[in-house]
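hey so i finally got around to running the thing on that chain from the lab meeting. sorry it took forever, my laptop kept dying and i had to restart like 3 times. anyway pasting the input first so we r on the same page abt which one it is
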Amino acid sequence: MRDETQANSAAAGDRLIRAGAIVFFLGAVATLVTVAPLLLGTKPFPTFMFGLCMLMAVGFLMAGAGVLQSIAEGRRKAREART
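ok and heres what got predicted. didnt touch it at all, straight out
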């Protein structure tokens, strides 16, 4: 079984998890940039900037979907191995 597995093979959902992590961190940076003027007492950013903060939630959902996809693939392989 070990001979069949390639070291650089990507499991199902890996790309989705990576993309979700990138989107999440972009949302985190947008959140820090948006909240900083409120804490510093300067003029706040326009309202649409607060929408960029939602990228954190979108990235989290994308990564979660990738994890669920990986779990489903693992269960599918385990089911095939039993039969």
